[in-house]
Structure formats: C-alpha cells, structure tokens
Q: What sequence folds into this?
C-alpha cells in the first residue's frame, strides 16, 4: 500500500534568506501574518523586503504606513541593493500614507465606530482589488487599532479584513508593536490580533552582556509545518539574514531589558 | 616582500586540504603572526583564494598594516573587526574592507556578517580565517563557544568555504579544544607547549 500523498498548500515565497527555509517553502498563500516586535527589532525592514522581493518576482505589492511618512519609508528601503525605484514608478510597489487614506474617507477622528471600520476595510480591499495586490503590509496595525476602542470591533476588523484579502489571494503582513518579546509576553498589543492571525512572527532582542542581538521566531503558521526555534537576524544591504540562535546564547533572554 | 620568513611546511600541508575542509591552526604566543601569514599567503597566492578574516585578537587595521609591512596585499580580503568597537574612536577608518561587529560576544552576528560578505564576493574559492578561538574565549562561555565552533565549521563546510581556525592551545578551554579537535578535518600544529 502506498502512503497517502501529503497535501501541501501553495506558498508565497517571501524571498527572505532563511525565512522560507524556516517556513518549509514560504507563507501559505492568502495568509494574514502578524509580525510582532519591539522597537528597532527589524519589523519594517522585514516587511519591506517581503514587498520588494515580491516586486522583483513581478507581483503588485502595497504598503499602508501609519508610523512614518511614505517618502521616508522609500528612502530607507534604498539601502537594499536589490531595490529599484522603478518598482515604485511602474506600480509594483505602492505606498499609501494612512493619514491620507483617513482624509479621503473623512475619518480624521480620534476613534472609529463600526461604520468607520467597514469603510476602512472597503477602501483597503478596493485598493487591493483594483491594483491586483498579492502582497500587502499594514505598518502598523497597532497604530490603526488604537483608533478602534472596542476589543470586539478590533476582532471584527481584523477577521473581516483578513478574510477578504485571503479571498483575493493576497498574503498580508500586519505589523504589531509590542513592548516585550520574552516568553511571558503577548504577541500583540490588544491580545486579539494574535488569535485571529494565521501566523505570528515575533521579533525582538536578546541581551547578551550589554549588547542587543536581534532575533526572529515563528511562533505560529497555519497550513505549514515550520521551525519554532529562535533565529538571530542581521539587517544587510542584501536583505535580512538569519541563522539559528546559539542554544547556550539564548539564555540571556530572561535578563532582557524589555522585561521578563 | 621583506626578509620575513614564511613557514613553507604550512604551504605544503595546505595543498592537501579541500575547499570544504576546516583547518585548525595551532600556534603559540610568539609565532602567531608568522603562522597566520604562512597560512594566508599560500591560500591567496597559490590557490588564488580570497575571503574573510575575522580579527578578534587585534584590530583589523593593525593586522592589515602588519600584513602590508611584509608585502602581503590584503585589499581583496574583507576584515571583520571584533576589537575596535570596544574602543571609542577605534572604528574611524577609510578602508572599505573593514567591517565592525560590536563585540566578540555577538557570535551569531559574526557568522551572519561573514555569510553576507561571502555572498558579495565574486571569487570562486574563498576562505574564512577566525583569529582566534582564544580571543573569543575571553568573552564567551565554554559551552556557547563550543556550540558556536560546531555551527561555524559546519556552515562553511556546507558552503564549500575553507575555514581556518587559529588557536593557541594552552590558552583554550579544554572543552573547546576537544570539540575543535573533533570538528576540524585538518590540523596544522605550530603550537608551543608552555609548562607552567
């Protein structure tokens, strides 16, 4: 008797050196992945490389930025040797300022209600649909969710957005800002994002004798087996590079400056 | 080249090694630079290799100047300096082939920086010289260093990059030394036994 063929989902190959290996081929297509991390851990750089690698493969990509102006963001990704401004000029990489989007939608207010949330979802989905975006980044979902006062509404927003984007075949990275990446920490600011996301990639720092070493760990990824080990990362002009963190070297984790 | 005399037996021994080899080079305190130069020169000149020099014992600038003094052109070698960031003002240089890592404690960063530099090289045959295990042992726990050397050696062996590990045996923790003996495929022994 032949063993049953193992079903594997099609992957969105991130192109990030080492990450696809950790994910056994890439992120399952249409997934919503939460990239959670402390400040300076490399979340935006990782997400931008995800988009630029997609653009290199001819995919249309979109980045919604709420944490820094799009001009500044584009300046920062020029550090990548494989980035070409033509990607922006030809519409492969599309950067949207959330402030501008709020303004278009008449959402220049401190908190969003149900109608506002639906209007925002519709606007994002329309952009994705119109451009044919297959890779999307929202940086950061934390900043966006601060405007949504109810936990239930945050849940609805993320669930509905994720479902609609998945239907369109769009693989999404939601960047989440957290203050601690240690083992006792939540992987998201509001606690609901981590339950709804298909995948969680945690980024932070391990303190080793006064030096901070960046790490990345895939905590969860539905639809694929994956490594759950902590990996050290380095941000280089050829992209994010990863290597498994030394087992004896991860012990400093508990003394992390971000709290135990 | 000046009157500096290289150890030709090292060159002869190096003709036996393959690209995916890992060579432990044992030296003493007094002959460390001669042994290092005697290892590098044949790799560069006979085998037309380039690569990465991880400078943990002395600053990269000091090493480059020492090599240049004896007539070795190292402009094609990328140096990773683990020393100078510990000294304020130590990282001001115009040399494009010097790269700094904050501390010898950042072992994974050293590995990733080396891999990055190797990915940017156009040479077909490359080496990585780790100078030295003793320098890393000052800062790192024995178990972590043993684990690191295991990872380091296997990483480059898999990529067909020759790894050369410099080591002063009588200053190396026993656990690290025994692991090094186990992992390395070749040994060039110019160590000097010191009886205390």
A:
């Amino acid at each position: 008797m032949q063993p049953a063929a193992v079903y594997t989902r099609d992957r969105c190959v991130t192109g990030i050196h080492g990450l696809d290996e950790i994910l056994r081929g890439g992120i399952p297509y249409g997934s919503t992945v939460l990239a959670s991390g402390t400040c300076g851990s490399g979340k935006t750089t990782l997400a931008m490389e995800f988009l630029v690698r997609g653009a290199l493969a001819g995919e249309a990509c979109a980045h919604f930025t709420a944490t820094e102006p799009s001009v500044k963001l584009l300046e920062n990704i020029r550090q990548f040797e494989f980035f070409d401004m033509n990607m922006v000029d030809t519409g492969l990489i599309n950067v949207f300022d959330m402030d501008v989007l709020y303004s278009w939608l008449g959402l220049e207010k401190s908190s969003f209600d149900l109608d506002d949330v639906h209007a925002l979802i519709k606007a994002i989905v329309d952009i994705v649909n119109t451009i044919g975006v297959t890779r999307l980044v929202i940086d950061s979902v934390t900043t966006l969710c601060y405007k949504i006062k109810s936990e239930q509404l945050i849940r609805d927003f993320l669930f509905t957005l994720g479902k609609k984007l998945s239907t369109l075949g769009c693989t999404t990275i939601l960047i989440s800002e957290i203050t601690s990446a240690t083992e006792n920490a939540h992987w998201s600011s509001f606690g609901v994002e981590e339950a709804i996301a298909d995948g969680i990639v945690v980024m932070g720092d391990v303190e080793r004798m006064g030096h901070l070493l960046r790490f990345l760990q895939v905590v969860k990824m539905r639809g694929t087996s994956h490594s759950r080990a902590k990996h050290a990362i380095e941000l280089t002009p050829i992209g994010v590079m990863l290597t498994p963190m030394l087992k004896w070297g991860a012990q400093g984790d508990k003394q992390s400056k971000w709290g135990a | 080249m000046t009157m500096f005399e290289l150890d030709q037996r090292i060159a002869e021994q190096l003709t036996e090694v393959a690209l995916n080899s890992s060579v432990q080079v044992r030296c003493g305190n007094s002959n460390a630079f001669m042994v290092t130069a005697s290892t590098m020169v044949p790799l560069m000149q006979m085998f037309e290799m380039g690569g990465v020099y991880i400078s943990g014992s002395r600053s990269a600038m000091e090493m480059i100047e020492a090599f240049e003094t004896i007539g070795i052109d190292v402009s094609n070698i990328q140096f990773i300096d683990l020393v100078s960031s510990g000294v304020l003002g130590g990282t001001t240089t115009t040399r494009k082939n010097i790269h700094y890592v904050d501390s010898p404690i950042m072992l994974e960063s050293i590995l990733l920086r080396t891999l990055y530099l190797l990915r940017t090289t156009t040479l077909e045959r490359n080496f990585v010289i780790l100078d030295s295990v003793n320098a890393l042992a000052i800062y790192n726990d024995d178990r972590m260093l043993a684990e690191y050397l295991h990872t380091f050696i296997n990483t480059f062996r898999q990529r067909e990059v020759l790894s050369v590990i410099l080591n002063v045996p009588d200053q190396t923790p026993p656990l690290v030394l025994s692991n090094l003996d186990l992992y390395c495929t070749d040994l060039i022994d110019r160590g000097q036994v010191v009886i205390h």
